[in-house]
Amino acid sequence: MSKDPLIIFDTTLRDGEQSPGASMNRDEKVRIAKALERLRVDVIEAGFPAASPGDFEAVQAVASAVDDCRVCGLARALAQDIDRAGEALKAARQPRIHTFIATSPIHMERKLRMPPDQVVERAVAAVKHARRYTDDVEFSPEDAGRSEEDFLCRIIEAVIAAGATTINIPDTVGYTLPHEFGALIARLIERIPNADRAVFSVHCHNDLGLAVANSLAAVLNGARQVECTINGLGERAGNAALEEVVMAVRTRQDVFPCDTRINTREIVPCSKLVASITGFPVQPNKAIVGANAFAHESGIHQDGVLKHRETYEIMRAEDVGWKANRMVLGKHSGRNAFRTRMKELGIEFDTEEALNEAFARFKELADKKHEIFDEDLQALISEQILEAEAERVKLIALHVCADTGETPKAKVVLKVDSEEKTGEAEGSGVVDATFKAIESILNTGATLLLYSVNAITTGTDAQGEVTVRLEKAGRIVNGQGADTDIVIASAKAYVHAVNRLLSPEARKHPQAADV
Ligand code: KIV
Ligand code: ZN
């Protein structure tokens, strides 16, 4: 018996980006979109075009870059938002507009200040308006998990009649439990007379750690689209993790009446790319993509796995893309080999100049580091993108001194708006001294929320990838830097975060915006 397709709607670039500090620029979004295309997700929600000019351009860029997935733009149930989404998606081969309005009593009364009749009217008008741009229109009753069921039935029936082809049921605040959420989906499909004219979808948040469980319960009760993110990134506690939903369905085909078309071998590379670009590392014990997800520590387990793998393993590490670091290029590799490997990683250069610059960086790295892995190449491109973005402050030089028994010192030279400035400071360690020296020049007054170092590959010559998260006046930004020297990587990450802090682009949050 053939199985139903389960549509995977990835919202890493939209809801995932709503994790405080996880904002991505246009080029980073395109790189992730290309990785999602290799993963074979069905729909990529690329952003919220009305939120800011940056979001608009990013959706436009993703729409042009992607061929094999539907590209979706989010819009409030407002004509001007839908027009922006329609405009941004012009280049998409398969555009989708996703429009939403809140339906729970608390949201309608306290946030929208609208009576239910008006909410239905707005939803219907929004769907009809979106249909002018595309026949692929998704509607979400926001906070459906806390909405009244009769009202959900009424508004959903009306929007399907108006032309919505996907109905997404969001558990916006992560409140529901799997048995209730599954039963809700079954009843909605049963009660709504025109339910057969739309695909039912779910979008679960993880506030109680139940996003994946709720999504799977919904699938068992008739949902045929799941909205999820790589590594479970997303607003507050995040969204359902794509890798967990996909592997649960794939591993338990004895239970699920459907399957996805995901190329599971691309899961780990995609997870690593998202972690590196957003600066949100994956916890080691995270299912599927955590470093320990397939590591056996106990002797009994090791013995069992050696005798027969399936004694303790329900999935194969290689099936989700875990592989030993493979040396891909070295000091003697030429431009063609470099360009070809980059292309395989989904990175193409618009100009010969960009290729030459990346190749020069590669040669520089290959001088310091014998073997170059895919992860190194990804980090190298991140660097190039970040530097192009760094308009106001550039790191020119760094000198640190850390003799045993002496107070560590750092001297930093920065170019600030094309003027070179030097700062010196002492600190409890060389990284602390470096950050203080940078601050002695810039005086940003920002608070350091997070400092983390990750080895990109193995070995003592591995590049360290540093994330710095800064906060100022409620704005949170992440900066990244990579280098074989982790103090230099730290300085680069701090400077990058400062540049983001200084950039005027402020994002408007979709759900927080007034409707
Ligand atoms: O969580 C939510 O309700 C959303 C909607 C916009 C679908 O992200
Ligand atoms: Zn959400």
UniProtKB/TrEMBL annotation:
GO terms for biological process: L-leucine biosynthetic process. Its cofactor is Mn(2+). Its EC number is 2.3.3.13. Coiled coil: none annotated. Residues 6-268 form the Pyruvate carboxyltransferase domain. Keywords: Acyltransferase, Amino-acid biosynthesis, Branched-chain amino acid biosynthesis, Cytoplasm, Leucine biosynthesis, Manganese, Metal-binding, Transferase. Pathway: Amino-acid biosynthesis; L-leucine biosynthesis; L-leucine from 3-methyl-2-oxobutanoate: step 1/4. Mn(2+) binds at residues 15, 203, 205, 239. GO terms for cellular component: cytosol. One of its GO terms (molecular function) is acetyl-CoA C-acetyltransferase activity. It holds the Pfam family LeuA_dimer. InterPro entries: 2-IPM_HCS-like, 2-isopropylmalate_synth_dimer, AIPM/Hcit_synth_CS, Aldolase_TIM, LeuA/HCS_post-cat, LeuA_allosteric_dom_sf, LeuA_bact_synth, PYR_CT. Residues 394-515 are annotated as: Regulatory domain. NCBIfam families: leuA_bact (TIGR00973), PRK00915.1-3 (NF002086), PRK00915.1-4 (NF002087). Belongs to the alpha-IPM synthase/homocitrate synthase family. LeuA type 1 subfamily. Catalyzes the condensation of the acetyl group of acetyl-CoA with 3-methyl-2-oxobutanoate (2-ketoisovalerate) to form 3-carboxy-3-hydroxy-4-methylpentanoate (2-isopropylmalate). Homodimer. This is 2-isopropylmalate synthase. It comes from Methylomarinovum caldicuralii.
